[in-house]
């Protein structure tokens, strides 16, 4: 069927919003339903939030529930990606690394799976959220988690080249600039934002990152009450390279869809060539720590 619009050819991505609890099996069931729905709706890639695997009540429970990348949970997601034939951004997995025996600490690991279920990239969160805000319980991510050693080069996917980050990373524009300079067209910030920082900073930071890098920004978020000690802000969204919010989730678990138009991205970059106008002679070559 001929169509006057070529929009149907544009890759479609799905952004999933969930309320993780300490119940790993139930969390998988919820995420799997959303991923299957994304596949039915024609998405080529589905994004899950940080801590899609679980949100525990305390650091001891976090460590107890964590698994290595070779464990059962990731195997379930590998099978799911194969079954649905889509790529999966697993936004923040509590990973027992190879140093688990010595450190008894984990990594917050963003895993990217392709549609055959292969792990194509892993990024371990480099900025840990150790903050104390009035009105929100203190966050001490470093109690259980080790900061990752490096950024990950952007990865080619059916939707475009994706630069991987996680939640608190969005407060560090150097990271997004580094990924953009390394070729990223989509930046992704899977998150579990709190109830104080969410209304104040969530949307404005995501839109700023999109505008300054001229990238799409995809932010899958946790929402609602996880257990008696923790709640998340939600408001998952996709922002285009002009800074417009082109999709957002409603309140509560669910998903939203967005088309990724790389021709539009190239137009924005052509009309306003900020990366050609940068002055590293003045402020250092901010944003080149990628090999």
TrEMBL record:
Domain CN hydrolase, first and last residues per copy: 10-262
Superkingdom of the source species: Eukaryota
UniProt entry tagged with the keyword Transit peptide: no
GO CC, alphabetical: mitochondrion
Gene3D superfamilies recorded: Carbon-nitrogen hydrolase
E.C. no: 3.5.1.128
UniProt keyword list: Hydrolase
InterPro entries attached to this UniProt entry: C-N_Hydrolase (IPR003010), C-N_Hydrolase_sf (IPR036526), Nit1/2_C-N_Hydrolase (IPR045254), UPF0012_CS (IPR001110)
Residues in coiled coil: none
Short name of one Pfam family: CN_hydrolase
Molecular function GO terms recorded: deaminated glutathione amidase activity
GO biological process, one term: amide catabolic process
Record-linked PANTHER family: DEAMINATED GLUTATHIONE AMIDASE (PTHR23088:SF27), NITRILASE-RELATED (PTHR23088)
Family of the protein in this entry: Belongs to the carbon-nitrogen hydrolase superfamily. NIT1/NIT2 family.
Record's protein name: Deaminated glutathione amidase
């Amino acid at each position: 069927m001929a169509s006057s619009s070529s929009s149907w050819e544009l890759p479609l991505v799905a952004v999933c919003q969930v309320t993780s609890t300490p119940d790993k099996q139930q969390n998988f069931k919820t995420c799997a339903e959303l991923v299957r729905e994304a596949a039915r709706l024609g998405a080529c890639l589905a994004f899950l939030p940080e801590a899609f695997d679980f949100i525990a009540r305390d650091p001891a429970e976090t460590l107890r529930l964590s698994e290595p990348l070779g464990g059962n949970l990731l195997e379930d997601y590998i099978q799911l990606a194969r079954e649905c034939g889509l790529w999966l951004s697993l936004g923040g997995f509590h990973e027992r690394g190879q140093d688990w025996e010595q450190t008894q600490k984990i990594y917050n690991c963003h895993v990217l799976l392709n549609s055959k279920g292969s792990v194509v990239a892993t990024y371990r969160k480099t900025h840990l959220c150790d903050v104390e805000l009035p009105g929100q319980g203190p966050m001490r991510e470093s109690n259980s988690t080790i900061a990752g050693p490096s950024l990950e080069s952007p990865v080619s996917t059916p939707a475009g080249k994706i630069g991987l980050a996680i939640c608190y990373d969005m407060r560090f524009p150097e990271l997004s600039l580094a990924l953009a300079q390394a070729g990223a067209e989509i930046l992704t910030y899977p998150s579990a934002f709190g109830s104080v920082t969410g209304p104040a900073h969530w949307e404005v930071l995501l839109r700023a990152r999109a505008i300054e890098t001229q990238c799409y920004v995809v932010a899958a978020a946790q929402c609602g009450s996880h257990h008696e000690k923790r709640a998340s802000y939600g408001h998952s969204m996709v922002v285009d390279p002009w800074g417009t919010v082109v999709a957002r989730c409603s309140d509560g678990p669910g998903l939203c869809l967005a088309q990724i138009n790389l021709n539009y991205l190239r137009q924005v970059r052509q009309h306003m060539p900020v990366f050609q106008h940068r002055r590293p002679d003045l402020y250092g070559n901010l944003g080149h720590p990628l090999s």
